[in-house]
Design brief:
about 350 residues, alpha+beta, seven-stranded mixed beta sheet, globular
Amino acid sequence: MPDIKIASWNVENLFDTIASEIAADLEFTLANGWTQAAYDAKIKNLADIIKQMHGGQGPDLLGLCEVENKKVVQDLIDAIGRPDYRVAHVDSPDIRGIDTTLVYSNQVFKDPKASDMEGHLVHLRYPTRDIFQVRLEVKTNGAELNVFVNHWPSRRQGQYESDPLRITVAEHCGRLVDETLRFARADFLALPDTTASLKKLNDRWNRNVLVMGDLNDEPFNRSVLDYLLGSKDLDHVEEELKPGGGKKIPEAKVYLGKKAYLFNCMWPLFGQPDKGTFYFSSATNSMNLLDQFIVSRGVFFGIQGLKIAPNSVAIFTPPVMTTPKGRPRAFDRKTKKGYSDHFPIQAIIQTL
């Protein structure tokens, strides 16, 4: 069966040209050079990069960060020229007016219902960018894929000063993953102690989960390791549910205390000189690996029809969007050249 080509990209302030209070606050106005021509150039440039991904085939599943609304995503799709592309989107009340969204191929996935899409807000002092959850079904084998597109709070006010914000969002995303992979307490306690119940627990524990996006933290940061539980090792991820005390299902204290660890696919790329997705100049003067793919044990081991190919995970750095120093070439509204201040990432999920 054909592979599923995935990608994630922070496209950096993809605003339309319609006047709004948020756009004015961020200087995306005619007076500040955000003209229709600049917008059209930004759309074209982004589309050119997306079309180059995966050897010129483009992704089948694309998570995007920093888009103003569904319309700009549709404009981007139109520029790419893929009639099979569809947008899964829910507007969020982020204070900066930007959303996360998901583009998918309807040749690969069935169109999700409205009930399969949900934007989860994290209520800090201001509502932060949503964690966008989409439940998809693969057409070829009927496998379910639970996707969480993330854009965590920035480091603009300082990495350590803003750490609590990202930790809060990471914990919230971790709870959503928990709810996807585990039965709630009341539902677990209502299960009879049977082999069929154990199968239900295992089926849920092994569901396919893909967390992706711009986390504004690196794989080693506490938010990712300790709160999202995105591990670099397989010790926890390979743990199975096991019955205890002679029962067919685990004891309640064992099951309810079990943590849903994930595997962070980005670690093989970490620590390499000049390798990263974003250049953070004000403090470290280095490339940072902020954009990530993180998967459940089901996706890592291919238990339910989908399996990540770890050696396929890559930062996409086409020469046209890379500066001589190896950094992303951000879009310049005056010259109408450039793309984004982030490199995209891409990978392959095999269908089994």
